[in-house]
TrEMBL record:
It comes from the Bacteria. GO terms for molecular function: carbohydrate binding; catalytic activity. GO terms for cellular component: outer membrane-bounded periplasmic space. Residues 15-27 have a biased composition (Pro residues). It comes from Rhizorhabdus wittichii (strain DSM 6014 / CCUG 31198 / JCM 15750 / NBRC 105917 / EY 4224 / RW1). It is found in: Periplasm. This is Periplasmic glucan biosynthesis protein, MdoG. SUPFAM superfamilies: E set domains, Galactose mutarotase-like. Residues 142-156 have a biased composition (Low complexity). InterPro entries: Gal_mutarotase_sf_dom, GH-type_carb-bd, Glucan_biosyn_MdoG/MdoD, Glucan_biosyn_MdoG_C, Ig-like_fold, Ig_E-set, Putative_zinc-bd. One of its GO terms (biological process) is beta-glucan biosynthetic process. Residues 251-719 form the Glucan biosynthesis periplasmic MdoG C-terminal domain. Signal peptide: none annotated.
Length: 720
């Protein structure tokens, strides 16, 4: 499943948000302002009006110039020159253009107009005029992405943007001192200001849309490092004022949720084009790029963190911050974080920016948790072998041409007493969300307590909660798919579901001839589910390089009321082991429409065995073949399924104990069924069923029963 990151974009959508670029302090004043004669009429405060006069007139359009009336926006804000043009431009840039905010600003400054500025530091800023880069009026007010500004960042700063270390939070009533500090933090500019609302594409001025997206794409969309120079200036300025890197900015889980909710009301920014050099870093090249051990984050802890370079599989930069004592500081990315080791082939490209991170084992040898690419993450589990992955969210999986892969764009890492907590901001064309992963290692599992809050920008047909991604090529149950000398090749061999009705379902995975999706209804909500690797025998795989028998399972335990829904299983045909062709997730019955929000809490357990001691016998083996008695002519258009169950509850039972196999099939016809104990294998029973084939996919359900009581989990096998 190759992520098509363009999927889900609506026809006619503006490809990028408008960008306002204030004129740098070193640049000349725009000709339209510097060369025009000033009005000179007296305002209500007695100060001369400094607005440009209308061409051919001695007065501005507010004082008889007949230039077409007040500019777009609030007419009263311009009446009789109550505010200077400089004041309104500053207010526009800082996203405080509402009349109430401007009145508060003027009141806090002690008066109106420009007269109060004479002889003050603010008065020296008269000629530091700012204007949109196209020299035209800014957009009308509308829903803002900065409705809940980040602590320490001005209103309007994009959530996916790198944290530029603003020197002070923007308050509803800000001062010219705050504005001067704001300018100092950014350096000489230009610097971005997030805007929303209906605006025309920027065609003129300092930088056009194509250029701005080439420069800003990774910052605005996915937290990249294209603005390293302004950020360095911000860091220097912040350091001079005693704030910034050491102090950090206030951070909390509640702030992150509010920030995500505000971003959801803004227009999504498209993903930038990856750097071609990052795309050239293939698997072999990426393995030669090593994070310097001496730069390890939390190096004094057992949970040291190291960063991934940009590579072909993850070419888009992300931002990573460290949270300590309720304050977050951004990790400054630099090429000297990495070193290139020896190897063959083209020289790897070490680029500014990072693609993700991993959490190291004690001693720094090997890692046990990694976040890399889109919203993917995985753990090596208690057997120390990577296998399947998890994602933050799945959007329209299994729907032709619609699947969307939202991405974690900013991570915040915090050490805890028992492990590490990872906060993440997720963004995509259809969704914005906040995630929290409280992660710790236990004796038999890696455990993550997950909280998620989701806001939808668009209608989503199939919302996938707690999605799991794995690989299944073939096993001993479908030898017809075998094309390799190894007996079995898979990361997981089955989907296990525990529903609240007490039923235990085991669905062996398959490699279907065509993409197939199955839904397992969950009317009471909150079914636990997971992809497991039950077969732990090395002889069944014979691979001493990737150790499939050690691949972890992943178990999802819902917390709280999820409401009714269904567990979904999506299987895609594959002919190689490098394709992740299995997806499992939970989807709610509640419609996922634009403007709605969801919250889901759950626990992830990366396992080396079963999620709990099974009360019922479990499936341990499965085979398929031709139907009929061995040695006789096989039954035409029929297939045989053989399933072995094993459990303590089956010990001591024999054919006279009243054990039966309850079997049903939805397509085709059940020809025969039998169940009996396996000779010489205490506690192991075998079920054999022959089924006629049809032109449609058939699902067979089987369980062992005694006196109407289930002795085993229910196995669901699919005949293609």
């Amino acid at each position: 499943m190759t992520p098509d990151r363009r999927a889900g974009r609506r026809a006619g959508d503006d490809p990028s948000p408008p960008i306002l670029m204030p004129v740098p302090e070193s640049a000349p004043e725009p000709a339209s302002l510097s060369q025009a004669p000033r009005c000179g009429a007296r305002t209500r405060s007695g100060a001369p009006c400094r607005s440009p006069a209308v061409q051919g007139r001695a007065r501005c359009r507010m004082h008889g110039g007949k230039g077409g009336g007040a500019p777009r926006g609030n007419r009263n804000a311009w009446k009789h020159g109550a505010y200077s043009r400089r004041t309104l431009e500053i207010a526009r840039i800082l996203r405080a253009t509402s009349p109430a905010a401007i009145r508060r600003m003027l009141r806090d400054e002690g008066g109106e107009g420009d007269a109060r500025d004479e002889g003050t530091d603010a008065g020296k800023m008269k000629n530091e005029r700012t204007t949109p880069c196209n020299g035209k009026e800014g957009p009308k007010e509308g829903p803002s992405a900065a409705a809940s500004p980040a602590p320490g960042r001005p209103s309007g700063a994009p959530g996916g943007m790198a944290d530029f270390r603003r020197p002070a939070p923007l308050q509803p009533s800000f001062s010219f001192d705050a504005y001067r500090n704001f300018r100092a933090a950014y350096g000489s500019g230009p610097y971005p200001v997030w805007t929303t609302g209906e605006t025309k594409p920027n065609r003129t001025g300092m930088i056009d849309r194509r250029q701005s997206m080439a420069l800003l794409g990774s910052v605005l969309a996915f937290g990249g490092t294209a603005w390293a120079a302004p950020r360095a200036a911000a860091r220097d300025a912040a350091g001079a004022s005693g704030r910034g890197r050491a102090a950090g900015e206030p951070f909390s889980w509640d702030w992150l949720k509010g920030h995500a909710a505000a971003l959801a009301r803004s227009r999504p920014t498209p993903m930038p084009k990856p750097d071609p050099r990052a795309l050239a870093n293939n698997y072999d090249a990426a393995n030669r790029i090593n994070f310097r051990p001496d730069r390890t984050i939390f190096a004094d802890d057992g949970y040291g963190v190291r960063l991934f370079p940009l590579l072909k599989a993850a070419p888009v930069p992300v931002e990573i911050s460290i949270v300590e004592r309720g304050r977050a500081r951004l990790i400054e990315h630099s090429e000297d974080m990495f070193q290139v080791g020896p190897g063959e082939g083209p020289e790897p490209h070490v680029l500014p920016g990072v693609a993700g991170f991993r959490v190291m084992n004690r001693g720094g040898v090997g890692d046990w948790l990694a976040f890399l690419g889109a919203s993917y993450f995985r753990s090596s589990g208690p057997l120390h072998q990577y296998g399947l992955s998890a994602r933050g969210l799945a959007i329209d999986t299994g729907i032709d041409g619609k699947e969307e892969f939202p991405a974690f764009t900013h991570f915040w890492l915090e050490r805890t007493r028992v492990g590490i907590t990872i906060y993440a901001l997720l963004q995509g064309p259809s969704v914005v969300g906040a995630w929290r992963f409280g992660t710790r290692m236990e004796a038999d599992a890696v455990v993550q307590d997950v909280s998620s809050a989701i806001w939808l920008r668009r209608d989503v047909e199939r919302l996938g909660i707690a999605p799991l991604t794995s690989m299944f090529w073939y096993d001993e149950g479908n030898p017809q798919a075998r094309a390799d000398w190894r007996p079995e090749i898979h990361d997981s061999d089955g989907l296990l579901i525990h529903n609240r009705a007490g039923e235990r379902l085991w669905r062996p995975l398959g490699n279907p001839p065509r993409p197939t999706i199955n839904a397992f209804a969950d009317p009471q909500g909150g079914s636990a589910f997971g992809l497991l690797q039950r077969d732990r025998a090395f002889d069944h795989y014979q691979d001493d390089g990737v150790f499939y028998e050690k691949r972890p399972g992943l178990w999802v335990e819902p917390v709280g009321d999820w409401g009714p829904g269904a567990v979904m299983l999506y299987e895609i045909p594959t002919a190689k082991e490098t394709d992740d062709n299995i997806v499992a997730f939970w989807t709610p019955d509640r419609p996922a429409t634009a403007g709605t929000s969801f919250t889901f809490d759950y626990r992830l357990r990366w396992l080396g065995g079963e999620p709990a001691a099974p009360a019922l016998a479990r499936v341990v083996d499965r085979w398929t073949g031709t139907a009929g008695r061995p040695g006789l002519e096989p039954i035409a258009n029929a297939r045989r399924l053989v399933v072995d169950f094993e459990g303590a509850g089956l010990k001591g039972l024999d054919r006279r104990s009243g054990v039966t196999a309850a079997v049903s099939v939805d397509q085709g016809r059940l020809l025969s069924v039998d169940a009996y104990p396996v000779v010489g294998q205490p506690g192991r029973w075998r079920m054999i069923a022959d089924v006629t084939r049809s032109n449609r996919t058939a699902n067979l359900r089987a369980t062992l029963e005694k006196d109407g009581r289930a002795l085993s989990e229910t196995v669901i096998h699919q005949f293609y």
